[in-house]
């Protein structure tokens, strides 16, 4: 089981990788730059190379996550800035040897044209990926459905990838809390969940899983993460285990985005997961 958590880059990318090892992790996620800004970061390539070499030596997998304000359905005046920011994120991820950059699926931008958001997403993806020649992928993450967010079904995720001019540069990130909140996975439909995902070839391109419990019930469309075993998580632990330990997901790295200050640290949660499920 490849498992880890989101870690800070306060001490650099190399420092983040070392923190992951200290947490007894075999994978980790990080923000490539300030998570509250789309500004371009002139990053330390030496630090990124040290991170990459350290990860290779310790069989450690990493993934980047775009800043909070990143969207494939931005307002018109932020389209160029968003593309430049995403390209910068890909450059950093590639330099660190990361699988890719996680990006949330887009949101509804028109009340009269239900396809407008998908058209804009494809336009943005094509413009971005036409310039990109690195190995790191864009990883589309399923949404919880909050505030008109799209990307709550396998069909949407797979179709956007297939209609893009560069599908080989796109993979997926599955968030268990989002899947539960949106109803994509209800904790009772696990068999059907895997059958549909296999039929649509979603799992062939799944690269990362965000392993989170949910503070709100199924179909709430609320994105609030809870710890796996502690706190007020509403996904039954046994159903979550059934999902994560399915052979289809056997080699996919698991990243905790759970609270680190509500009675259990990420290090403790990783150790518990390895003991119980690993």
Can you tell me about this structure?
The mean pLDDT is 96. The protein starts with a strand and ends with a helix. With 278 residues, the chain is an alpha/beta fold. It has a single domain (3-276), classed as Divalent-metal-dependent TIM barrel enzymes (TIM Barrel, Alpha-Beta Barrel). It contains nine helices and ten strands. The protein has helices spanning 12-22, 45-57, 79-95, 116-129, 154-163, 176-182, 190-199, 237-244, 266-276; strands at residues 3-6, 27-30, 61-65, 100-104, 137-141, 170-175, 206-211, 213-214, 225-226, 254-256. Strand 1, helix 1 (12-22) and strand 2 form a beta-alpha-beta unit. It is globular. Strands 1-2-3-4-5-6-7-10 form an eight-stranded parallel β-barrel, surrounded by four helices. It has a two-stranded antiparallel ribbon with strand order 8-9.
State the helix count: 9
Largest sheet: 8 strands, parallel, barrel
Strand content: 15-25%
Q: CATH superfamily assignment?
A: Divalent-metal-dependent TIM barrel enzymes
Number of domains: 1
What order do the strands of the largest sheet run in, or round the barrel if closed? 1-2-3-4-5-6-7-10
Q: For the residues shown, what is the average pLDDT?
A: 96
Tell me the number of strands: 10
Instruction: Write the CATH fold name.
Output: TIM Barrel
Rounded to an integer in angstroms, the radius of gyration calculated over CA atoms is 18 Å
Low-confidence stretches: none
